[in-house]
Prior knowledge:
alpha+beta, 4-stranded mixed β-sheet
Amino acid sequence: YAALAAVGLAPRSWRELWNALAPAAVERMRSIPWLADYDEPTPIDCDGERCAAMGEALRKGLDDARVKLIAIRSRVVFEEEFNTLVDRHGSKGTPLSLNTLALAGESIASLPPGPVSVVCDKHGGRNRYAALLANQFPHALIEIHGEGRPASRYRFGPQDRRVEFCFRMKAESCLPAALASMASKYLRETAMRAFNEFWRRRLPDLKPTAGYPLDAKRFRADIAAEQRRLHIDDRLLWRAV
């Protein structure tokens, strides 16, 4: 929320937050029962005045470092879409990489002329990204400037738009990658609030879930009868079923 405040945004509701960080996802929510009509006031764990103050402190720190935060965006892949992509590509890693590069491509396209540096965390154990970059940037000649466990680097583009991609371990030590990770994780947590609220309205004694593997199995068993009654397909609920 401090970063959103630093770019002049102050979402006051769950839907405003999603519109600010992942506008492309909002339309797709209409087909997801627990997201279609959900809303609540935000910020959730911090009052608005404190968020605004932290945003001003962040903006000042960035100004002092001669850095400007322009925007924050997240690309959300809901369960049904994720399952379709896994079926198509035969792995969970490729959809992650393709969506990451698609978001990077959109961000690069929105920038004025000049050099661009993109820092990404490593995608699992993958060290080679040239083919994925060529898929996202089909008119570019991808130059490989090193591929290995610590980092893999690539460059392409003309002199007035030279682009470098670096896929590195522990990329969250870089502020832009850390902010991107925080934004996406925060969206996930707010989506889980909607998910839990949907099921607890129907099953008041249901223990909420954070959605991680071990507890998800318990939760799945607890909602099974109600899920069948509502005719909700597993592919809408569970990733890579």
